[in-house]
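Now read the record:
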Amino acid sequence: MLAADDQPHVLEALHLLLRPQGYRLDIAKSPAEVRAALASDFYDAILIDLNYTRDTTSGQEGLDLLSEIVSLDSNLPVIVMTAWGNVELAVEAMRRGARDFVQKPWENERLLAILRTQVELHRALQYSERLASENRLLQAQGRPQFIAAAASMQPVLDAMARVGPSDANVLITGEHGSGKEVVAQTLHTLSARASRPLVAVNTGALAEGLFESELFGHVKGAFTDARADRMGRFELADGGTVFLDEIGNVPLRQQAKLLRVLETGEIERVGSSRSRKVDVRVISATNADLEAACASRQFREDLLFRLNTVEIRIPPLRERREDIPALAVHFLRRYASRYRRDIEGLDSAALQVMAQYSWPGNVRELEHTLERAVLMCRGAEIQPADLGLNLQRPQGANLEEFSLEAVEALLIRKALQRFQGNISQAAEALGLSRGALYRRMEKHGL
C-alpha cells in the first residue's frame, strides 16, 4: 500500500491503522515522491490526499496526480481523501478514475472496508488478466508423449534426467521437426516449476517491431495499436519456464535486449520505464550452428553463454529409425480418434516403407504423413499407398511432373539445406517473409 499526504500526523495515523491489518505501508509526502515510488515498486492500492503545498482547497494538485496514476496503470485502485470534501470534488475524482473517496477525519471501519474491497478487486483483475493471456497463448491441455527407445536417444534421456529437475538454462539443438519442443515440455514437467506455466514462443517468426511487445509486454498507448496493457511472455511465465524456439534467428539488436533480461532477471514493458522482476527458467532451441553464427558475428557470444548452460542435441529421425514404429502408432491413434476413423493399425508393408524413407522433415513430417494416411485409408489398416511417400524420385524428372505443392516443398527444402537451416536467409532467397516461410514449412511438415 502507498499513502500520500503532506501532513505527517495523517501518515502516522494510517500507519497505526493499517499495520495491524497486515498491510505493508510506504509513505510519500508529495506528488513527486508518489511518482518516484511508483517508478520503483508495485502496489495493491494507493491512498492520496487531494491537497498539497500548491493550494489548500481546490484539490487540483491531487486530481492531476490521480490522472497520472490512472494513465500509468488503469487497474491500480486509487482512493482519494481530503479534509475539504464536497460533492463536486468527489464526482470529479471518480470521473478521473478514483475507485472511492473518503473525507478526513475518516471512519476506521469504512476506510478498512474500502481498502479490503479494492485490494481484492485489484488482485482479481490481475488474475483475470493473467488467465486471459494464458488462455490466448498457452498450449492446450495434453502434452505430446515422449517416445525414445533408440540407442541414439539415450544421451538425450540421460541429459534430461540430470538437468530436468534443475533451474539451469538449456539449449536444445537439432534439425527442423526433430522434437525439440517435446524435449522442452518434458524438461519443464521434470522440474519443480511443473505446476507453473510453460510459455512457448517462436522467436524467429516474430516481426522485429513486435519482438519486445510479445516477449516483455506493453502499456496502453505505447504504440498505435496498444489499446490496453498487455503481459509479455516472460511475465506470463513468471515462476515457470519460457521456451524460446528458433533462437538463432533473433536479430542482433533484439539479442542485446534479451541478454539484459537474462542477466538481470528484470523486464520493462514497452512504453514503461518501470522494471519488473521475473523468475523464469529459459529453455531455447535452434537448428542453426550458433558457434558458427558467433564466429561470423551474427549471434552474440555472451548471449550463447547465457542460453547453453547445458546443450542437448536431438538426433534426426533417420538416426533413430527404431523409434519410427512406436511414433507411427502414437500418431495413428491420435488422428484416428480425432477424425473418428476405425483403423486398427499399420500394414507391415507400410511400416517397411516408413523404415526406408529418409524423413527430411523428421518427426513432424512423420506426424503429417500419418494424419494424411488416416484420412486416406479405406480399410482397417494403413497401406503403403495411404502414406503418399515417394521413395525413389527419378533423377531427371521435370518440374512439370510435380504438383505445385511438391515443387514448393522441394524449393523450401533446398533453400534450407543451402543456408544450413537459417530461416532468415532462406526466406530472403525465396522472396518470403520469415512468417510466411514458417507457415509453408508447417504446411509441408518441414
In short: The CA atoms of residues 378 and 386 lie 9 Å apart. Confidence is low (pLDDT under 50) at residues 134-142, 393-397.
